[in-house]
Amino acid sequence: FSCALFGPDGGLVANAPHVPVHLGAMSSTVRWQLNYWGENLNEGDVLVVNHPCAGGSHLPDITVVTPVFDNGKLVFFVASRGHHAEIGGITPGSMPP
Fold first, then answer.
1. pTM for this structure?
2. Alpha-carbon distance 71 to 56, whole Å?
3. Distances in Å between the alpha carbon of 20 and those of 1, 10, 56, 65, 76?
4. H or E element at residue 49
5. Which of 53, 49, 74, 44 lies closest to 64, judged by CA?
6. What residues does the Hydantoinase B/oxoprolinase domain cover (predicted)?
7. Which domains does the chain have, with CATH numbers?
8. What are phi and psi of 39, to 5 degrees?
9. HSE on the CB side for 80, CA within 13 Å?
10. What are the pLDDT digits (tens) for 36-90?
């Protein structure tokens, strides 16, 4: 499980020293969401993603990205990524041989 703060452009600002692969790919995830949603991001939105093409590392890594606004202006993003052993696969662990 990893957490970080990102600027309004999706660049990493600060992170806790957790899983390096999570933190290395999370900026790409935040930027992908910013490029995809753009002006459609609103206060109160929470984005959940695990798609590898959207900056994810692999399917069991689920990322929650929350844009933070001040007076209607996007100020920064909070993001957290956790590895889940079971996300609904056909066998326990979601990673059958």
1. 0.82
2. 30
3. 10, 17, 13, 18, 21
4. strand 47-49
5. 49
6. 1-97
7. 2-83 (3.30.450)
8. -70, -5
9. 5
10. 999 999 999 999 998 888 877 777 788 999 999 999 999 999 999 887 776 666 6
